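Note to self: keep these together.
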Amino acid sequence: MGTTYERTIETSAPVARAWQAFVDDREREAWMGAGRPDDVFERVDVKIGLVERNRLVSWSQRQDGLDGWYETSARFEEVAEGTRISVVRSGFGETEDWVHYAANTAHGWNELLADLALYLETGVRGARHFPFRSGIAATTLGSAAGLRITHVVPGGFADGAALRAGDLLIRLAGVTILELRDVAVLVREHAPGTELEAAYVRGRELLRGRAPLSDWHFGAREYVGHPGGYPKPKLARA
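Structure:
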């Protein structure tokens, strides 16, 4: 993905309807809302940029705990079948913290845009992005070989299963793990405290460990409160 996220979807909804769902506060809550009143996130500062009705909206955003601002734009184009919506997020920094954030925001926006299309075409609120129940208390990044552990929160699931930074997580509860969304499925299905087995590779050795899943926000004082749980700046590295 690099430092830019780009995604285009097409929906059968007319342009004016798609625009309204995206910019109106109450409409946006229907497909983008967290879904649970107790979900807690770090503070976000937003500055609105260009606005061209039924065509374009852009904004700058600064995430608490990360240095600098990044940009998001959403373009709306009338097509024969309805509306083409293109979202671009760019300007992410190059630090390790930003790399984690960019990877997680890509996963999140893929789900959010699917929920937007669902809402526009059926009126149903999918709420498929936010309902996390538990977590593995570790951060990860994708690689050619699969999902690599980058940080382990002391006392959490990954620590209990003896995972360490640099390990490749290949199975969780017997389920193949290739990327972040595979883990997201499992932590949505299982409550904190559920004991699962992790299979992982360290060097040239296949290892296994078992531990109870952590709360979703486990270690939040050290990790930014975001579904991907990326590290806060100046966190001591694993």
